[in-house]
# Entry
Amino acid sequence: MKRRLVLGAMLTATLIAGTALVACGGDDDDDGGDGDAPTAVSTQPAAATEPASEATEPATDATEPAGDGVENLSVTASDFSFDANLTSVSAGAVVEVAFSNSGSAPHTLTFYTDAEHTDAIPGGDSDQVAGGGSVNFTFEAPESGSAFYRCEVHPAQMEGELTIE
# Structure
């Protein structure tokens, strides 16, 4: 009988301790343990993407010389189209490109000297940018004609032309 009482007391103590540990267990969401983790996480992406859109807003004006023949080009990929702030650049200018992908599908931005997209302009390629991402790159505009661009992931849907003056 005494053995049963000891065993019952041990079982009861184990259950009480286990319940206390579960109820007071650690908070592994690293937000202070106040239980508001979903709210903190849901606001984080909006804060992270906001500066990227602010950073590209100033470049939406006409050609913006950055000094000594440098021109800024801002291009945004959204869904399956491009939105660019410039339609022309000066011949031989250094073109600083701010490329952002506001969609969810991956995109590229690659510049060519020909409409058949066979002669890539050196340095005129963003590589693949994931949705929500952005990249900056620089290339030298050809001496005359046009620069043709497209998304290598969606070449039939996403292309454009930049006049070289």
